[in-house]
Amino acid sequence: MKKVRLGIIGLGAQGGAYAGFIAEGRVSNMEIGAICDIDPEKKAVAAEKYPAVPFYDDYIAMLDSGDVDAIVTCVPHYLHPEMGINALQRDVHALLEKPAGVYTKQVRELNEFAKTKPELTFGIMFNQRTNELYQKVKAVIDNGEIGGIRRTNWIITTWWRPQGYYDQSAWRATWEGEGGGVLVNQAPHQLDLLQWIAGMPKKVYSNVKYGYQRDIAVEDEVTAVLDYGNGATGVFITATHDIMGTDRFEILGDKGKIVVDDSRKVTIKRLKRPEAEMSAEMDMQDVMKIFMGGGTDDIYNEEIIEFESVWGAQHTSVMENFAANILDGTPLLAPGSDGIQGVALANAIHLSSWLGKEVELPIDEDLYFAELTKKIEEEKGVPANK
Q: What range(s) does the GFO/IDH/MocA-like oxidoreductase domain occupy (predicted)?
């Protein structure tokens, strides 16, 4: 096999973008094996743009056809685990869109099945893991350059969506159709990066607003407080109603600080001595010298790096890495099994707000599913006690 034949399930905005990337030759080790969509109109689109590519309206038929070596799931979130399992059962490699699923119970089932197929490649489209900026941040943390983490803060409100976005289709921004709002649709990348870089918290307490500034059932405003269990804390804020938007990620360590602005610029300040050591040895005269214009050169070094991003480059990097793993065993940048972490974090934030209290991770998966089921029933107009 010289190129991986990818089956694209769902020819919407994302699936269409992937098809375009491959057709343009931007994924050197991949070709379009087949396209699948249940919408008859997409068949005409595929026939016009990719006339030589087989088209299916049933993804199982596509999996059984022999036309594809792997699939990517560009479909509603609930379907990701089911499609992943069905692909792996048929010895077809699986690349899942984010999030891996809506609730950890279904994602865990997928992960457990994937373990029985170690010879197959199972990946997830965490394209931000290929972003050089976040790779740099992770390396600085992993190398201990700013010491142990004391606090994380991420304000990511650049996900502005007008009411018209939600009105596009009946399944969008519903508990039954998407399983949530900004946490499962727009912010999964940041939830993954947060835990990938700083680790998973032990407890979560959240204040979540549902239909706060949009006529929707799910969340459009989130504030979550994270407890890492070792004294370190974090705050995660996201929303879809801030048209001006902010993307600022700060990580404070006991030997320095990282500040990421707009996912483009990272400022790294490395203390010349650990903060605790300075606290123990410096008197108020030393402090006054620093804060009265004495300069900070003796306190820390500062490094500022700006990164440029090309649209689609991060997605194609994941696709190329996924194909390389199939072809020659190149290590995966985003293993599919990692997808459960971000889902667990989103579930914990939801559950904390539903119960009105702090929750511990891992959460009670059966309790979460029961509460989610209540939300779906209420959305349908079914009394919660039925």
A: 134-258
Asked if residue 381 is part of any domain, the answer here is no
End-to-end CA distance of the chain: 54
Domain presence at residue 149: yes
User: Between the CA of residue 8 and those of 5, 69, 113, 126, 340, what are the distances in Å?
Assistant: 10, 11, 22, 17, 22
Residue 377 falls inside a structural domain:
no
Residue 383 has pLDDT above 60, yes or no: no
What is the domain range of residue 15? Answer: 4-125+312-333
Indicate the burial class of 44 (C-beta count within 10 angstroms; 0-12, 13-18, 19 or more): exposed
Domain-embedded: residue 382: no
User: Mean pLDDT for the chain?
Assistant: 95
Task: Kindly report, residue by residue over 128-172, the tens digit of the pLDDT.
Answer: 999 999 999 999 999 999 999 999 999 999 999 999 999 998 889
> If you write DSSP's letter for every residue of 170-191 in order, what string do you get?
TTTT-TTTTSSSHHHHTSHHHH
Sign of CA dihedral 360, 80, 197, 223: negative
Q: Are residues 177 and 247 in the same domain?
A: yes
% residues pLDDT > 70 (the chain): 98
For the domain that residue 187 is a member of, what is the CATH number? 3.30.360.10
174 shares a domain with 190: yes
User: Domain check: are 323 and 267 in the same one?
Assistant: no
CB 168 within 8 A of CB 13: no
**pTM more than 0.85:** yes
Give the residue among 183, 191, 192, 193 at the shortest CA–CA distance from 133: 193
Per-residue pLDDT, 41: 95
> Residues 25-71: pLDDT tens digits?
999 999 999 999 999 999 999 999 999 999 999 999 999 999 999 99
Give the chain's domain count. 2
DSSP state of 336: G
Instruction: Assess whether 81 and 133 both reside in one domain.
Output: no
Q: Are residues 133 and 105 in the same domain?
A: no
Residue listed under structure tokens 């479909």: 75
- CA-closest candidate to residue 33, choices 76, 93, 113, 112: 93
Do 32 and 153 have their domain in common?
A: no
Strands of the sheet with 70-73, listed across from one edge? 55-56, 30-36, 4-9, 70-73, 93-96, 122-124
Tell me whether strands 300-306 and 233-239 are parallel, antiparallel or unpaired: unpaired
* Model pLDDT, residue 382: 54
